[in-house]
């Protein structure tokens, strides 16, 4: 007995050698509520009554425990911890169909994972299109005590940018699954930390739109003159690429997706769905007035969605005092050059470079296209449009369940030689499949995202791709068709930034490298909610044989119904 | 081996001794579609693209197999076979939370049950408020070959009456769960066999309302002059009590809830949600014109919902030719007397009387009231407002799962002496509970439904109560407070009709008797969708120890997660 106590003691010391890692416990209830984030009242999925949900605050090395109770009436739910690698806990990645069965109404599901790296992360629903219904929030992991960051600031604030629709996600999903496609169109508004403003005078009678609702008063960022603010700006738009700016103030980019950036100064931050940035802003302007914080749509010819507005409030001015100026206009929607340049400017901080392997073991090229399958509009990679299976891959593979998905490997590339990325494809047909990429464990994998023309002439969209369970090195961005001979020579192997989300720009390519060192099954997909829903994603498997015993809580659907697991 | 074959042969002969019972197999896909049943477009839950869903046609003794695939995106589903007793298959009653876990998106669930009695039955969703979203249809079981019915007719038609809302069921449910109550109000239209008509000129711009859509052309009942029609009229309204009539034609009531009725002639049929009737109508009027079929709201002071209209079309007049008359006006909404009289007039056909036991072993009185719990409006019986548990009772009881529900028995009655049913209660508080009534197996149980005033002065509603798994004898309807000494003497023990649904009229009482002879757990509840959602129901358990091994397909939720069962 005494020996056991001693052993336990020794064990806990070994497990938590440095400062005491803590447990951060949250109890969340997910349910519907009426909310008016842009003055227009609609049903929103909330966490403990909030959308955005509560911010998770933790320190590097802590364990986060979220006990999530699903209080929706007939709908299931699942939450993904965006940017957290889930090392050793691939079953808590929260990706319905990939790592878990959905959480039934009435059930309480406990997510438990370690936040092993400091930085700015997100969480959001990863089931159907529930993210768009308001189920999202911030995760802020500070550096371990005793460690420092390569920059300093006085205050720390989180701002999530989203776009917002008045239609329900059910209507949107049904429209996307219809033939002909019944697309919802551009969003009604842009929200800054859950607050936006729709012009209520456009609203016809039976709707509730209240321009004086405090729920849609602009978000206020109060600053003390002379102080420096770390703004953790992230995007969870369902569709839109955004530009974010603070009138009259420069921003210094210092972090991207949890990695320190070699600082550079910008006037506006281009940000794509799934990305997080920290920028430093000094309150160094005339303190007798307030300034506009604005966000506006880029990369789409969107004449519908007005810019999102917030107030950069110099204390002690009244927070509701509008700035005396007209809100500054954002960049030109179709000017790709500055966006490409900003993507290229993001490099690892010189003291925090993680050198990438100089060669890779496997290269996979993903041609991004819009397609038709039996008349239905879809998105695909390599003309393969992805469908989620009803038995999660992780369970199927770990428990040797056959027939859960198509075992044929999906294509490793496309017809590089003949495919014209600048025109609508001659044959826009695609096939749909739930097959996955099985990676050899502990190897180096290169991903080339290749953009192309959509089914509309002279149109190529921006797709932000998000990888679960990993950070990848961003080796390069290019224009036109990726050339496997000449382009890899130009890769940045010196100080590439590591990220979990990176855009592929219109008619361009993006080269990523990662190590398949995290046993599990991991989604990699366009973070535009409707694009993933319409097939723009893949799943990687690596070292699934090394995954520990699955918890029973993730079971219960498809062929994993009735399956046990560890308690 | 030979012996085994012989045994199997013998076995199947023993199982199906009379005319060959057949298997009626259906494959259904449940999904969302845009539909315009009353010209106004909204998302409807369909079966194989239809709402009402396909009619199940079977013969007494047949086995019905429905393979139901849930193609909703994030929502589960469950379907109840209303009026089918599920003898030996209590797990296929389709009542989420009582007899099964819900069916997950992507899953195919197979319902399999015997239709052991001829008659007119229904099916509908029994999960959340999905019934109101359009998930319902008819079951028509004909008498076994060789058997006859005590009436004759030339043609047989099914007509389901429903009321229809333009708000989604999510919005309705959220409103009902809000404090203050955000009630959706009276329905926008009444549908006759899935077709109604909303005045599109009332619709403001962003809605789609197309008055010329064929989906909302009136339902046409084409008749050949001189022929007799059996109309199987049933109601699945979410709220409304209805009157149904055919201009200029008498109707002879011959069946109620699958039981032959001593025929009687009416001008209008009062029908409550969950009831089914067969009426005979002879096409014996001037055949040179068409006639109106109308249905209108009674029992509520509803000035909003226009009557539902259909065409009684005398062949060969054009089916779309409007009758030359103004549609006849229905009965006065607040005249309870004719409704009470019609309820009392329904008696068993003299050749088909099933005599009730002359005494009962247990009497339970259910006081029907509207209440408040912590400020939230609820409905209750005996001031106990019912909540469904997340582990279905059948599974919890059969598998000895403890802690799935409150084991305290709910109250057997109310304070008969002091409670004033004619006024708003002094104390409208109630408690909520998921406790159930455990009945001794094979005993005779009397249920007295006692109506009372709601929380509004001078207001008492009609509640149609539906019992799963049984038919009950309707022993009597009365006015005022049930008197346990004087009223039972007046019970009809001679020729009471058996039914599965019976109304309790405003400020009145209804006395029912049934035998607890069907092992299982059975819901008994007000069939008004919102009233059950708000707590107006109970569950009976009887002989659960006699229930066979549960199928694994009903498992998977709450404490029944990970539980096995027979394949």
UniProtKB/TrEMBL annotation, chains A, B:
One annotated GO molecular function: oxidoreductase activity
Source domain of life: Eukaryota
Top EC category: oxidoreductase
Leader sequence residues: 1-21
Cofactor(s), names only, from the UniProt record: Cu cation
Record's keyword terms, sorted: Copper, Disulfide bond, Glycoprotein, Metal-binding, Oxidoreductase, Repeat, Secreted, Signal
Stored SUPFAM superfamilies: Cupredoxins (SSF49503)
Catalytic activity: 4 L-ascorbate + O2 = 4 monodehydro-L-ascorbate radical + 2 H2O
Pfam families xrefs: Cu-oxidase, Cu-oxidase_2, Cu-oxidase_3
Compartment(s) of residence: Secreted
Residue ranges of domain Plastocyanin-like in the record: 30-142, 158-315, 420-543
Gene Ontology CC terms, in alphabetical order: extracellular region
EC number in record: 1.10.3.3
Subunit structure and binding partners: Dimer.
Family recorded in the similarity comment: Belongs to the multicopper oxidase family.
Protein name: L-ascorbate oxidase
Species lineage: Eukaryota, Viridiplantae, Streptophyta, Embryophyta, Tracheophyta
């Amino acid at each position: 007995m005494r020996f056991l106590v001693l052993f336990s003691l020794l064990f806990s010391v070994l497990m938590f050698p440095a400062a005491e890692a803590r447990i951060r416990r949250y109890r969340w209830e997910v349910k519907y509520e009426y909310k008016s984030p842009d003055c227009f009242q609609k049903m929103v999925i909330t966490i403990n009554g909030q959308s955005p949900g509560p911010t998770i605050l933790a320190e590097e090395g802590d364990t986060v425990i979220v006990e999530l109770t699903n209080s929706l009436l007939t709908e299931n739910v699942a939450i993904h911890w965006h940017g957290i690698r889930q090392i050793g806990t691939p079953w808590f990645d929260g990706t319905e169909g990939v790592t878990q069965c959905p959480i039934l109404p009435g059930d309480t599901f406990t997510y438990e994972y370690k936040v092993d790296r400091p930085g700015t992360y997100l969480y959001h629903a990863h089931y159907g299109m529930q993210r768009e219904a308001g189920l999202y929030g911030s995760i802020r992991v500070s550096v371990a005590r005793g460690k420092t960051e390569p920059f300093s600031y006085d205050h720390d604030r989180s701002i999530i940018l989203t776009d917002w629709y008045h239609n329900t996600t059910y209507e949107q999903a049904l429209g996307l699954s219809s033939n002909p496609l019944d697309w919802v169109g551009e969003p009604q508004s842009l929200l800054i930390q859950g607050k936006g403003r729709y012009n209520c005078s456009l609203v016809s009678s039976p709707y509730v739109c209240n321009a004086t609702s405090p729920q849609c008063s602009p978000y206020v960022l109060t600053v003390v003159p002379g102080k420096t603010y770390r703004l953790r700006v992230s995007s969870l738009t369902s569709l839109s690429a955004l530009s974010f700016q603070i009138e009259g103030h420069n921003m210094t980019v210092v972090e991207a997706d949890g990695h320190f950036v070699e600082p550079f100064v910008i006037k506006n931050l281009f940000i794509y769905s799934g990305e997080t940035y920290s920028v430093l802003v000094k309150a160094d302007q005339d303190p007798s007035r307030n300034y506009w914080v604005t966000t506006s749509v880029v990369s789409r010819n969107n004449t519908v969605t007005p810019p999102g507005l917030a107030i950069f409030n110099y204390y002690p001015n009244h927070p509701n005092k509008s700035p005396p100026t007209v809100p500054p206009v954002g960049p030109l929607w179709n000017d790709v050059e500055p966006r490409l340049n900003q993507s290229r400017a993001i490099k690892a901080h010189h003291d925090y470079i993680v050198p990438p392997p100089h060669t890779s073991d496997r290269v996979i090229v993903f041609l991004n296209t819009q397609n038709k399958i039996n008349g239905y509009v879809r998105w695909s990679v390599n003309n393969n449009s992805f469908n989620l299976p009803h038995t999660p891959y992780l369970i199927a593979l770990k428990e040797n369940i056959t027939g859960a998905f198509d075992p044929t490997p999906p294509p490793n590339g496309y017809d590089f030689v003949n495919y014209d990325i600048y025109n609508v494809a001659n044959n826009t047909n695609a096939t749909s499949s739930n097959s996955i990429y099985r990676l050899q464990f502990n190897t180096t994998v290169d991903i080339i995202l290749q953009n192309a023309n959509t089914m509309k002439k002279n149109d190529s969209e921006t797709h932000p791709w998000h990888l679960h369970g990993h950070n990848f090195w961003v080796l390069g961005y290019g224009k036109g068709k990726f050339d496997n001979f000449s382009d890899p020579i130009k890769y940045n192997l010196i100080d590439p930034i590591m990220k979990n989300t990176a855009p592929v720009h219109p008619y361009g390519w993006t080269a990523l490298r990662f190590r398949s060192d995290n046993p599990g099954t991991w989604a990699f997909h366009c973070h535009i909610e409707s694009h993933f829903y319409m097939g723009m994603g893949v799943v990687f498997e690596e070292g699934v044989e090394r995954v520990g015993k699955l918890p029973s809580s993730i079971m219960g659907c498809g062929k994993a119904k009735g399956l046990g697991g560890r308690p």
